[in-house]
Amino acid sequence: MVVRTVIENATRVKYKVLMPHHSFRREMRLKKRDMSVKKHKENIQISLTDFIDFVSKAGTTKFTKVKEIKNRPSYHPAFDFWKPLRERIIEIHKNNIDKSEIDEILDELTDKNKKELYPNIIKQYKSFLGRKKVEWLEPPFQDWRLGELRIKINPEIGLFIGDKPYVIKLYFKAEPLSKGKVDMILLMMENNLKKGEYEDAIFGVLDINKKRLYEKSTLTNEHLFLLEGEAMNFIKIWESI
Predict the structure, then answer these.
(1) CB 188 within 8 A of CB 220
(2) What phi and psi, each to the nearest 5 degrees, are found at residue 177?
(3) Closest residue by Cα to residue 155 from 190, 112, 120, 109
(4) Starting at the edge strand that comes first in sequence, how are the strands of the sheet with 212-215 ordered?
(5) Which residues pair with 126 in a beta bridge?
(6) Which end of the chain is more exposed for a tag (fewer CB within 10 A), N or C?
(7) What is the value of pTM for the model shown?
(8) Which domain of life is it from (predicted)?
C-alpha cells in the first residue's frame, strides 16, 4: 500500500511537471472569459418602457431596439427630459402642496424644449386632478427577473383618490400610447406589485396629454408566458450584439 501510494503521488507530480505551459494559459484564459461572460450577463437591466417598446416591435426592428438600448450611454439626470417635472409632481403630492404650485418649476427651466413642452403637460395634469381629493401613497417597486434580464417596474406615484388607493405609471410623451402597450404595462405591474398592502390597489397608466387614466388590463396571467418568451428573445439578441 505504501509503495502504491508513492507511485501514485509520483505520477501526479510528474503530470504536473510535464503539463504544457500553453495548455495551462489556455485554461486560464477560458476561465477568465467565462467569468467575464457571466458578469456581463448579470448586468442586463432595462426599464419597463424599454421592454414594452421591444415587445411591440416586429422582425428586424426588434434587433434595432435592443442594439439602441445596449449602446445607449449610462443614465445621467441631465439627459432625462421629464425628470424635473416628474420629481415636482411627486414632491407636491408627498408634501400635500396645492397643485397650482407645480407651475413654479417653469421659472427654473433653461432648456428651450422643456420651456416649450412643460407648460401644456402641467396644464393637462392639473386638469386631470381637477377637484379630486388626493392623498399620497408610497408606490411599490420591484424588478421582474428572467435569467440574466432585470426589468425595473417602478410606477412614479401612489395616490388615494377619494378613498381608493391607486398606483400610477405616468406617461408624458406626446406620441400615442396604444392600448396594447397599456395592457402589457398594467399586466406587468399587477402581476409583480399587487400584493401585501397593495393587494386592493388599482393599478393605472396615466396618459397625461389625454388626461386619461387606463385601468385594468384586458390581458390575463396566461399572457405572461408570451412576455417570458419575448424576454428570452431579448436576451439572445443582446448576447449576439
Answers:
(1) no
(2) -100, 110
(3) 190
(4) 134-136, 157-161, 164-171, 202-207, 212-215
(5) none
(6) N
(7) 0.79
(8) Bacteria
Find where cell 418602457 sits: 49
- pLDDT, averaged in runs of 10, over the chain (241 residues): 44 44 56 52 85 95 96 79 96 96 95 96 98 97 95 97 96 91 96 95 97 92 92 96 90
Q: Are the beta carbons of 55 and 235 closer than 8 angstroms?
A: no
Q: Kindly list the distances between the CA atom of residue 31 and the CA atoms of 36, 40, 148, 197, in Å, as whole numbers in the listed order.
A: 9, 14, 19, 46
Model pLDDT, residue 11:
45
CA dist., res. 194 & res. 215, Å (int): 13
8 A C-beta contact, residue 94 and residue 136: yes
**Radius of gyration in angstroms for the set of CA atoms belonging to the chain, rounded to a whole number:** 26
Q: Which three cell numbers stand for residue 1?
A: 500500500
Count the helix, strand and coil residues of the chain and give each as a percent rounded to the nearest 5. 60, 15, 25
* Residue 30 Cα to chain centre, angstroms: 32
pLDDT at 74: 82
